[in-house]
Amino acid sequence: MALLPTMSNRHRPNTSETGKPSLPPRPAVELQRRGELRVEKFLEAATEVFNEKGYQAARLSDIVKRAGGSMATLYRAFGDKTGLVHALMERSIDSFGQSLDELMQSPLPPDEALEQAAYRMVEEILTPARIACHRVVISEGMRLPELRDWFQAHGVEPMEALLNEYFQRETEAGRLYVEDPDRSAHLFYMMVIGGLILRSVNGRMSPDDVPHAKQQARLAVRLFLSGVLPRT
User: Fold this and answer.
1) Which of 106, 107, 117, 175 makes an SS bond possible with 170, Cβ 3.0 to 4.6 Å?
2) What is d(CA 167, CA 226) in angstroms, rounded to the nearest whole number?
3) What does pTM read for this prediction?
4) What would the pLDDT profile of 79-118 be if each residue is shown by its tens digit?
5) Domain ranges, ordered by start, for the chain
């Protein structure tokens, strides 16, 4: 029985449309139900250790010591340290994707809907788990290109694709005027969270800074909307 939820299809890139080869998924977890709590503790401990020591210096023995359990259980659940990072990424990607799922389903006008989505994006970006993921991707991207590309293909491109779809829909409905939805999706994404990613990775921002980050996100949404609201 798989303990860790796999990412829903809505957050997976459509390789037939992108033309990119699909990347290999993280090995499936094969533990019994009684091991679920232990797996959760492994993920919590891994988040702490990766944030404190970085990916290279983090040892699986440190994670096991902090979480309890055994090295054998950790290996059976995640395979290795890279598999553990994959599991953290999957969790964060699913959580982050919920903010854009809600945007797609929102009955609110674009200014309110985008502001709410931006707040949710900020909340997830500044979670300890997401910060750990970004630190690994940025610091180890050159050495672990498959991990870096997996995160980009599963954690970034599908989110921008949802924004692209939203901007197209709202433009067709006459509520927005977005000339290039694809590029605008990337710009909106980076305006809201690009700076937060850098500052959280280098330690200048933490989960305690969510209120301030939301103020910045609100301004980013307003600046973006000033360029895409319908002309009268």
Assistant:
1) 175
2) 14
3) 0.83
4) 999 999 999 999 999 989 998 999 999 999 999 999 999 9
5) 20-228
